[in-house]
Amino acid sequence: MKSKFAKRAHFVKSSETREILKITERPEVISFAGGLPAPELFPLEALKDACNAVLNEEGAASLQYSTTEGYVPLREAINRRMKTVGINAAIGNILITSGSQQAIDLTGRLFIDEGDTIICESPTYLAAINTFKSYNANFVEVAMDEDGMVMEELEEQLQEHPNTKFIYTIPDFQNPTGRTLKLERRKRMIELANQYDVLIVEDNPYGAIRFAGEELPPVKHFDTEGRVIYLSTFSKIFTPGLRLGWICADQAFIDKYVTFKQTADLHTDSFAQRITAKYMELYDMEEHINKIKAVYKERCTAMLACIEEFFPKNLSYSKPEGGLFIWVELPEDVDATHIFTECLKNNVACVPGTPFFPNGTQTNTFRLNFSNMSIEKITEGMKRMGEVLYRELEKEKALL
Amino acid sequence: MKSKFAKRAHFVKSSETREILKITERPEVISFAGGLPAPELFPLEALKDACNAVLNEEGAASLQYSTTEGYVPLREAINRRMKTVGINAAIGNILITSGSQQAIDLTGRLFIDEGDTIICESPTYLAAINTFKSYNANFVEVAMDEDGMVMEELEEQLQEHPNTKFIYTIPDFQNPTGRTLKLERRKRMIELANQYDVLIVEDNPYGAIRFAGEELPPVKHFDTEGRVIYLSTFSKIFTPGLRLGWICADQAFIDKYVTFKQTADLHTDSFAQRITAKYMELYDMEEHINKIKAVYKERCTAMLACIEEFFPKNLSYSKPEGGLFIWVELPEDVDATHIFTECLKNNVACVPGTPFFPNGTQTNTFRLNFSNMSIEKITEGMKRMGEVLYRELEKEKALL
Fold it and tell me: Which residues form the Aminotransferase class I/classII large domain (chains A, B) (predicted)?
């Protein structure tokens, strides 16, 4: 049989992180590699109530085909939550998606023509890179500092790339760096988008998980021209298994998203939508999120203390005020993939950072996840990792 | 703001049937327009048990991120069911999708390059047309008779279109016609696919809902070279709201499908997968399907009797042995869209058939759904429709 695959099948590759996750699943490995929320915080009993209430009260409608746009009470509940962070959306501005991964994918489908430029933080979210690349986008990376994407460099790149379709940004507790875009830069990003007539895709899965510092309004809050497409999800504040995300955007965009969502999967799981809406009706979701924040804060604080205590001094790292991740930068000549391999021998795992750079340039970084491990495991795992880092960084020095 | 949409956004349109469904939702309308399964047959109490059992026994794992391929016990249960119809698949041959609509979409993504030809039945499933068109495919329609796609014409088209990527077929109780591909033609289709080196995409959502005639093995059963990609779903045998479908194909294809599914939505709802697997463990799904068959048989029989009794004689219609649909062909000069409009005035609805022809050529057909209406409503609705048809067909005659 002659090969039947479409051209695009040859340049989409399996997510490297997902492959790494498989390797790190051995029970003896303490893994900081994944990006999983803490499962012990999933509200199991409350969900049981929600399932029974939906099946008792709403019956067959909860299991029937439903509208592509999504379940109205869920969209309303989303709008009520978004209002508290400064986004005033109408029901027609919301499309429920099958996880925010689908929101990313539909964004690629709706906006990217072959050769379009996407400007993003360097590094950025791996699955967004893979998805946008499957639509043949070119990536232009803009440097970050601890306050997020550097606006001067963003402007330079906008000038240099007039075929830029959108800026892709994760302003809050970014994946993979844990960094947050500071307030003035949010405003400046909007000014630049208006000036250079580009869209902003604000991917905001972590914004609600702020456990330190001051609340910042999302980039969308400053949007005056309907240029910001805001993506978010229930995965980090409720459960990821139900695959519920949403897009908040100008209605003209949402209408087009809907036509693509029809071809993609008709609509998102009706039952998942209804049990989530029911949960928000019966229980206090903010209280639940506060529990998550408290636990993640402890774990993040513990991991940062371990870096101080167990890691060599000649590396830098982010100090996140929320989210799930810490980012570590090794001396320039150190290969993080080698560190990863050595760590694995010591039964501890991280994710090497290279795949998070769309153009694959930087090789001396890795990502640590703190949300999915007890403090005891964090302490033990970081100790193991520290031993590897001391040994390998010494070797590097000896080679110089 | 300059338009930001990708080129593909300009030729994907909202599904006409979905728009029609909105019009027909007025409570006074008896609608045969949709394709909904009978909600009164959804096993609500059993699902409640399944939800509680999953949350009690499997806990947080049922709500966490999970593998792209799908929940292993569900894939095993699918394989056990498929074995009974003559498909021997291994676990690596199965990918769980977010409804079989996603299976169709991923098939487009994986196989269709701009300008590729897809050969299909004339007419065929609307949402597959829209999806494959979004990947820039050309459609070549092959005529059907009451025994499905005509093999002589299929061979002619294969000869004429060497850039054919696949044959898209719905062999059992086809949507929209309700027709079934007869046994010898299934074998012949495989021979032709082998000879002309093309794939077959067998879309089989209705095969399990046979309520009359003899069981036929799926086309996939006769596949000797791994050319048949078999798509199916729990939507018609369980519930559509949970959005659970699957792809059964050669493992080399499944591996590539997985990379695209990662970009599309990471994985299908873990909880929906587990409650469906749990339902199949705790309850007898075949017994449930038998109930569906009994009810649909009654409704189909009633609707066919109504056509005999209330419709003019100068039209033809299919006599399905399963599935959800009957297809009506009016005299050639009658415009079914006009009939639809007139029916709506009489508070009864069908779906005009034109959008089911990928190249939009035939305008004198419509589709009737019998699964979603009581016998009383079927009788009343068909009476109303018969009145419209008699009146409008008389007018046509007067014009000649």
Answer: 44-384
